[in-house]
Amino acid sequence: MGAPVEAFRTLAGRGVSELVVERSRFLGLAVPVTSLAEALAQVDALRAEHHDARHVVFGLRVGHGPHLVDRSNDDGEPARTGGFPVWQLLVGEELHDVLVAVVRYYGGIKLGPGGLARAYREAGRLALEDAGGMTVHPEVELTVHVPYALLGKLEHWVEGDEAVRVAGQAFGVDVAVTLAIRAVAESAARAHLAALLQRDPDAL
After folding, report:
1. Quick one: 129 and 148 in the same domain?
2. 30-64, pLDDT tens digit by residue?
3. Does a structural domain hold residue 2?
4. Domain limits at 131?
5. What is the domain-level CATH number for residue 163?
6. Which residues pair with 26 in a beta bridge?
């Protein structure tokens, strides 16, 4: 889907929740995903695990920019009472690469459209809260060969620049340093490296 350049919010891990409303059980699941196929596979696995449940609704946001996929599924519930309010949570929190699904075991008492939407939304919210959030800074990797005499200067620069980190080093006649650079800072980092190593930026 193409790597995004800007930082974005996603989940720190997997979150679950359980909510009982008028004897109906709502089991929430919030997980980070990297593709639409992975998200739908998670939904299929949840349906297989809870094959005796009445509904498994979901909302997802995968990708970024022009490749963003927004989708929700009410799984037989009245329109916009299941997956849609769950999906709205993701939009409101500006989360990306996230799936939230909620399993419902019907308890015999009808909740009405408003009650259903509130229950699904709350189960989804609790699962998101359990998962926790994190900010991702998309990175690009660049390997440069640094003379030993300049290694200290390079390390000093990296220590003072939060947009750059050392991802690996290999020592030989010089030091092959692999840098992970935040995509938004790539041009500035290349210019700084070129000046530090006294090389043409296009040669890096």
Report:
1. no
2. 999 999 999 999 999 999 999 999 899 999 999 98
3. no
4. 8-136
5. 3.30.70
6. 19, 104
